[in-house]
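Journal club side-thread
Mid-discussion, someone asked how the predicted structure for our own chain would compare to the paper's figures. Pasting it here so we can look after the session.
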Amino acid sequence: ATLQTGGASIAGTQNDIGFDPRAVAIARKANGKPDCRANGALGKEGTAFNFLPARCAPGACTSVRALVLSLSNVSAIANGSVLYTCTVEVASGASPGAKALRLSRVGFSDPAGKAISGSGVDGAVTVGQ
């Protein structure tokens, strides 16, 4: 996920990535959490990821919530910065083609903690033949 600030001073973000687990899903680490990694260069040590719905079983999760933040480093994130990356798993019966990663519940905050309105752009994973 990459941040485009549109000229705003953004210190933290939140978003959900929705997916169809019958086609593609965010991979799960051994501890049950999403296999996502914060961009350590941003210094946002409070960054966290969680599957939704809460306590969903493998194969039943339909989205991941990502929070990129820090309570001690409230400096603005540079435009064009990679916020985080996630590993995606393709379901064994997935048909070839583009599989949607839908962005929702997008939110931003400035260095003072004030909410900033904005939006996001959906993504996709292309499954080969």
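Post-session note: DSSP finds no helices and ten strands in the chain.
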